[in-house]
Design goal:
six-stranded parallel sheet, 20% strand, globular, binds alpha-D-galactopyranose, binds zinc ion
Length: 689
């Protein structure tokens, strides 16, 4: 187990590529001057520097990096040092073509791009080990290297013969015998039975691609193989004595890997956030980002790092929209509010050519400090200095959404009941937004996570059950917890085989119902959820209006549950659509269809205030985000206004100091300015009392 990464103050800075400017020492000098003006205390070096570090096989040139690192250090700037495996030098690809990936059609790639090497190739591994060893030997001991940044945005898959063989070994280890594999994969279907492990091939559009259990295991294998590669990289650093903490940078809503499997190996989770601001109402984008921040925090249940973000506009989206004044600080501080101990950018100095020459940067091609972006970065640097003491503080466990990636893989690969526009993200975000509108911390957890400490659990469309989640959910409710589960949950086991008997598997007594059928609606169709004529139990939220619903409508048979809403239309009009059941000391809700957004808000309004009566902001105004971080020094209440107008807010929380932003008095009400972040502090003694 890795020791958690610790930083005494919030990190500010980002990716820096001095190797692109080695022939212009004046520029490198200037950079340091600018960094200091912007209160930049950390840079990430070496992310794509392999060709400069090892220009020819076995010949290393590290002097430039040592010089820059030392100069930064003398100026009070720490380094996050990357291993360079994210992009390989040309000599490597030319001499050893096996390092190049093969796609699912078994075509070998040419040299180019990045993030496209075979994770299995012994040659690639050897070469990575050699350069990492050299890096750790020469720069690892440097006092100012605070963290290893392992590779960059691991992703993708390779179908080369080496990977095929590795996959077969992985399967052998998992299933032991081929007959067990056949049974678990249901290969009798279409006569796809295997006689030996050697016959197995990775999924391909040219071959096997409808055997869902194979596809699911392939995805699991890709995660394990990537993880194994990362461990290989880390081992190379450890072998020459570097014990420095490690991270690797994750991506937004990335479904190629099960990030939760990395939790034990990293000292800290970090990720790269590139939202499209100003495309829709800012609060909607903020909630989407908030969800990802919360996911990253939940992987280890402790602070994370915002490893990359754009100081202005990214250049890869279809439209490169500038951030409006104030948005840089607001969005960066949102990461901090949700548990980040850093605000780091991609990148510090804009590259002159190649594919990212128009990607936003702290210092642009103009090269001066009198730019709007640079001035905003400086102001944010000052704010982060004022918030230093929040570094390392945590967020209390309150509610959690179970969003298991293995379940999502299986559900999205399955054929039926809806092969297009499965409303998974919409349903998950619908619940998330509603819970967050009360300022309740919402962890995003997988099925391996402990459920202890939560009062509310939401399991939206959790199609595949693993790790005996059904038993642990039953226990959670029995002990007094509140569970909300939706349609299309507990349908298949971990091998993607449908459960026989009643589903959601193992939860019929808890939910008081069982699955009967599921209707998929055409895009132009809607149904409705209307209040049930039976009066609901007192504990359940009273619904007084109807809601529309779409996509999927599950029909259930009640055993004990009470209907709160019933379907309004079609042959199942009058049948239960939203139900409530009491079980042990707790209660369980079941939502049978994908509803319109207001439904989530109304359901949650009937539950959250009861479960969390003491909230610092009893009524969170629309467009405002509220979070609370705490440490041994005190509690920090973050209030962020994503509205373009000033917003009145009432706070029921005595505080000792305002660390940043301002709450103005207007008509005897407190108001928060547009795009402002206010951080209030309650000292430790008061927080205890
Ligand atoms: C990713 C990469 C960076 C850079 C940025 C641009 O996050 O890690 O190297 O390409 O995207 O947005
Ligand atoms: Zn391969």
């Amino acid at each position: 187990m890795n020791q958690p990464f610790f930083t005494a103050s919030l990190l500010h800075g980002g990716d820096y590529n001095p190797e692109q400017w080695l022939d212009q020492p004046d520029i490198l000098e200037k950079d340091i001057e600018y960094f200091k003006k912007a209160s930049i205390n950390t840079v990430t070096l070496g992310v794509f520097s392999w060709a400069v570090l090892e220009p020819e096989e076995g010949r290393y040139e590290f002097q430039w990096l040592e010089t820059i690192l030392s100069r930064l250090y003398k100026n009070g700037i720490s380094t996050i040092l990357a291993t360079p495996s994210g992009a390989r030098p040309k000599w490597l690809a030319d001499k050893y073509p096996e390092v190049l990936r093969m796609d699912e059609k078994r075509r070998r790639a040419l040299f180019g791009g990045r993030h496209n090497h075979c994770f299995t190739s012994p040659v690639y591994r050897e070469k990575v080990k050699a350069v990492n060893t050299e890096l750790a030997r020469r720069l690892g001991p440097h006092p100012d290297v605070i963290l290893w940044h392992i590779s960059n945005e691991y992703s993708g898959e390779c179908h080369c013969p080496l990977c095929q063989e590795q996959f077969r070994q992985w399967l052998k280890k998992k299933y032991q015998t081929v007959s067990r594999l056949n049974a678990c994969w249901c290969t009798t279907f279409w006569s796809h039975k295997y006689q030996s492990f050697d016959q197995i091939e990775s999924p391909s559009s040219l071959g096997e691609h409808e055997l869902h259990a194979l596809s699911l295991d392939w995805k699991r294998f890709i995660t394990d193989q990537t993880l194994d590669f990362m461990r290989w990289e880390i081992d190379a650093l450890r072998a020459v004595g570097s014990q420095k903490p490690v991270t690797t940078n994750f991506m937004y809503d990335f479904t190629g890997l099960n990030y939760y499997k990395f939790r034990q190996d990293l000292a800290v989770v970090s990720w790269d956030n590139y939202p499209a601001w100003h495309k829709k109402a800012e609060i909607e984008t903020a909630l989407d980002c908030g969800f990802q921040h919360d996911l990253m925090r939940s992987i280890q249940g402790r602070p994370f790092l915002l490893m990359e973000s754009c100081p202005s506009a990214a250049n890869w989206p279809p439209v490169s929209k500038l951030k409006k004044p104030g948005m840089l600080a607001l969005s960066s501080l949102q990461a901090v509010a949700h548990g980040s101990d850093s605000v780091l950018y991609f990148q510090l100095r804009q590259s002159r050519g190649a594919s990212e020459k128009f990607h936003g940067a702290v210092i642009d091609h103009y090269g001066g400090e009198d730019t709007r972006v640079f001035q905003e970065v400086c102001a944010l640097g000052r704010t982060l200095t004022m918030l230093q003491e929040t570094a390392g503080s945590s967020l209390k466990k309150e509610a959690a959404l179970i969003c298991d990636i293995e379940s999502r893989w299986a559900m999205e690969a399955a054929q039926g009941p809806r092969n297009e526009k499965l409303p998974y993200k919409e349903v998950v975000q619908g619940f998330y937004n509603a819970v967050r509108s009360f300022g309740i911390h919402t962890d995003i957890i997988d099925m391996e996570a402990s459920l202890d400490g939560y009062r509310l659990l939401i399991a939206p469309m959790q199609y595949l059950f693993r790790c005996r989640i059904q038993d642990r959910l039953a226990e959670f409710v029995k002990q007094g917890g509140t569970l909300i589960m939706t349609f299309w949950s507990g349908i298949v086991d971990e091998y993607d085989r449908c459960y026989l008997g009643s589903s959601p598997n193992g939860l019929v007594p808890v939910l008081g119902l069982r699955f009967a059928e599921i209707d998929s609606l055409y895009d132009h169709e809607k149904n409705s959820l209307v209040p049930s004529s039976q009066t609901g139990p007192e504990a359940a939220p009273p619904f007084i209006r109807s809601y529309s619903c779409h996509s999927l409508c599950e029909l259930v048979r009640l055993t004990d549950a009470k209907p709160l809403l019933v379907y309004g239309d079609d042959f199942y009009a009058g049948q239960p659509a939203v139900t409530w059941n009491s079980y042990g000391l707790g209660e369980a809700y079941y939502v049978c269809a994908a509803p319109e957004p207001d439904f989530y808000q109304d359901l949650i309004s009937g539950i959250v205030p009861r479960l969390f009566p003491d909230r610092p902001v009893p009524v969170v105004p629309h467009g405002v985000e509220v979070t609370l971080r705490e440490n041994e020094k005190g509690q920090y209440l973050f209030l962020q206004n994503f509205n373009r107008t000033e917003t009145a807010i009432e706070i029921d929380w005595p505080f000792d100091a305002c660390l940043c932003g301002s709450l103005c008095e207007k008509d005897s009400k407190k108001v928060i300015k547009p795009f402002d972040t206010v951080v209030l502090k309650k000292g430790k003694e008061r927080a205890d009392g």
